[in-house]
Specification:
By secondary structure, the protein is of the alpha+beta class. It is built from 3 helices and 10 strands, in the order αββββββββαββα. The protein has a single domain (40-173), classed as Immunoglobulin-like, CATH 2.60.40. Strands 1-2-3-4-5-8-7-6-9-10 form a 10-stranded antiparallel β-sheet.
Length: 174
Amino acid sequence: MTKFSTSKALFAITGAALIVLLVVFGRSQYVEASVKEGEKFDDWIVACEKDTNKKQLCFLSQVLSSKEDTKHKVAEFRIGYFGGKDLKMIQILPFGVNLQAGTSIISGKELLAPGKFTTCQSFGCIAVADLSKGDIENILSNAENSVGIISSDAKQTNILMSNKGLKEGLEALK
């Protein structure tokens, strides 16, 4: 019969508890950006929201408004990591778009990342595009960038997107 030792059991339980504490509290969460909400990088501004874990998540935002009515938002582009390692662009676009067609990021005359619509809310329709390192390099090297959409009446519209400040903003998000 094995002899039970209280001190050995206490030692084992303490060791197991320390391991659990290290695993639970020692896990590295994704790194929060060192930028501050409202910080400007030319045509891009830092915006932050809470994610599902109530962590502050910051991204670059560019809001485009009508020339006639600057309070009327036409589109919003958000670029960031959104809790992951890969860079994404969230496109908030007006109603009246062909959802099946999706979107295209256009740099110069080259089609880059396609966007897929995920939902339409009261403020517009949302599409998400994955951005590769090559996509970002193309956007940064071309003065003419836009997001192409197809309207519900089958007409293509390209919504201009500025790259001024994008490089500096992306470096600050890392």
